[in-house]
Write a structure and sequence with these properties.
CATH topology of one domain: Rossmann fold
CATH superfamily of one domain: Vaccinia Virus protein VP39
Helix content: 40-55%
CATH class of one domain: Alpha Beta
CATH architecture of one domain: 3-Layer(aba) Sandwich
Shape: globular
Structural class: alpha/beta
Number of strands: 7
Number of helices: 12
Length: about 260
């Protein structure tokens, strides 16, 4: 396993710097990740975007760009926004290789989008919000740049809600990736979206398998953290082991949430 990028403990860093340090060197891995490149949620998003046929869509926190590639099939223009310049360079290169000329990259945090008010008519964000320093700030920005009535699709890992299960989930997520902030519950998501100016229209959930070896390799998790995750799994109570379906090699299942909303 490659050595992860390290920031000296004595060096004060912003959360945005931590996110960039974590994801920039891993750009190619996220573009190529099967977990991110496929899924029933992407198929559902593709169908929604086909019906909407946006003029200009926004992929907020684009990561490896998989949402942007889907949106580019149906939108005249797609803004792929991310904090990491290295991630955006990988997305731009992939878009060129696939002939997706509609995609433009925008380097910015979710909380400070350099886009005009009401300048997009479709918003999507997938597996990104759990890294945002201020998730409601990011959602307010998404609402600001969206036209009234614009579809908005938010997809992320969701907390099961139970404190017993939630603590385990957040612990292993943080050990794997120190830029992790929080996997929110479904009720937290709907509450935040409502407060930030969206109307929630539908929710769906599904189970997603995390194959342990590729899960840690993708983030180049340090061996000490890998051992800590495995120790937590070994000591987990029966309800935790059952919910996450923890396997002998450390692989497990988590819950995905897809919310269909609309800008009020």
């Amino acid at each position: 396993m490659d050595k992860p990028q390290e920031i000296p403990a004595s060096t004060p860093v912003s959360h945005e710097t931590l996110v960039t340090a974590q994801f920039g060197p891993r750009a190619a891995a996220y573009v190529e990740s099967a977990v991110h490149a496929t899924g029933e949620d992407l198929a559902a998003l593709d169908a929604i975007a086909a019906r909407a046929a946006p003029r200009r869509a926004l992929d907020l926190g684009c990561g490896g760009g998989h949402v942007a590639y889907v949106l580019a099939r149906h939108a005249r223009a797609v803004a792929a926004c991310d904090l990491s310049a290295e991630m955006l360079a990988a997305v731009a290169a992939t878009a060129r290789a696939r002939g997706l000329t509609a995609i433009e990259t925008v380097e910015a945090p979710a909380e400070r989008l350099p886009l005009p008010d009401a300048s997009v008519d479709f918003v999507a964000s997938r597996f990104s919000a759990h890294h945002w320093r201020d998730v409601e700030g990011g959602l307010r920005e998404a609402r600001r740049v969206a036209e009234p009535g614009a579809p908005a699709i938010f997809i992320d890992i969701v907390s099961p809600g139970s404190p017993l299960l939630d603590t385990h989930l957040q612990a292993v997520e943080l050990l794997r990736d120190p830029s992790h902030v929080r996997d929110y519950t479904a009720s937290e998501w709907t509450g935040m979206l409502t407060r930030c100016g969206f109307v929630v229209e539908a929710c769906r959930t599904w189970r997603l398998k995390m194959e342990f070896a590729s899960w840690i390799a993708r983030m180049r998790t340090p061996e000490t953290h890998v051992q800590a995750i495995r120790a937590l799994q070994a000591l987990a109570s029966e309800p935790v082991r059952r919910h996450f379906a923890i396997e002998p090699d450390g692989s497990f299942f988590i819950d995905g949430l897809m919310i269909e909303a609309r800008a009020a």
